[in-house]
Amino acid sequence: MELFYFVVFGALGALVAAIELSKNNKDRIITSPAFNSFKNNYLVVYSLMMAGDWLQGPYVYYLYSTYGFGKGEIGQLFIAGFGSSMLFGTIVGSLADKQGRRRACVTYCITYILSCITKHSPQYKILMIGRVLGGIATSLLFSAFESWLVAEHNKRGFEQQWLSLTFSKAIFLGNGLVAILSGLFGNLLVDSLSLGPVAPFDAAACFLAIGMAIILSSWTENFGDPSENKDLLTQFKGAAVAIASDEKIALLGAIQSLFEGSMYTFVFLWTPALSPNDEDIPHGFIFATFMLASMLGSSLASRLMARSSPRVESYMQIVFVVSSASLLLPIITNFLVAPSEVKGGSISFAGSLQLLGFCTFEACVGIFWPSIMKMRSQYIPEEARSTIMNFFRIPLNIFVCVVLYNVNAFPITVMFGMCSIFLFMASILQRRLMAISDKPKTENWAAMKERDTEAEPLND
Question: Where does the sequence pass through the membrane (predicted)?
Fold first, then answer.
């Protein structure tokens, strides 16, 4: 493997270590022993949940191909996963507010374990069921756990600023360190021990089962709006009204969809961008490098959120602009650097430049996750947190399905250009959110609920 990859990985590792070791009292949040115990318990569970997710990622496509399915059939399976997340995930996520977030987290574990079990079958219908289950699980992973954490944090009376510490540590571990270790562990199971492409899915099921046991033994239940007279349709309507009546929630949803849509598109594009002529690139090592860049971002985010200035709403404008510029690199190099005509070989000069840009983008992703979590905790009403968060994922899932369906219809530079425009739009919306962040809500959730209650007898 070329020295270039090791230099980039080593430089990122040194930066992460330097940032973590150089933190002073201004960069650290002083907390209580009770909070530290609560935080560590959540971080263990979240890390196990993310390990269950990361172990599967690199081997889904590979497993389907070993079963003899072509690109078209595999594409349909992936679209089924995102479609399931959009349709069923929204309903299941909404039930979390009414039936309990702890119960929803346990449902995530069970659903994802069942999805892992289906990978043992080479039958297309069984694999399709597995993708549908996986889509539902993904929606729960990105809503139920955060909803439980915010509600439990507030219920125990911990300071609001301490929440940002849990968020940044969760991303540092779950989306950084755990991702790297999961990649290495999956490689050990499949390549070193030759256990086959199903082995990572079995390992994922084990981690999920361990996490579920911890949830069942140490987590208490909390709810959004447990009122008996509120059916699912009323809950959807209430969440839609909350988004429509509060510009800050609507802006937050649009920002999240634009960024995450670009991020998921990037996942499909980075491999062909770095190897347009079938260059021999170390996919696993590059993936680990991206995750290290994400850890760098979450380290920076924890420093930024530990201070009162700059505010999250302020620095995220810069993050979106930088991420937009980083995804312009494939377009710029396409014009400025002469394309190589040689098939195979090592990564090109243009590819090396793009890799540095992609690492910058992943660092922005590392800043984005804890920062968007903090903003969601501030602006989304507690009563319908899971419902609204899953509403945010509807346009995201539609966008990713459209991209997957048309991935071969457009040149790769057009796709990157589209992502760059979306990220720049996110920075404009973030600027608007910053401008109105101190304004009171148009109508709070309690007032809307009271109004709906008063209106019900009239409907009868």
Answer: 6-22, 43-62, 74-96, 128-150, 170-189, 201-219, 285-306, 318-337, 349-369, 390-406, 412-429
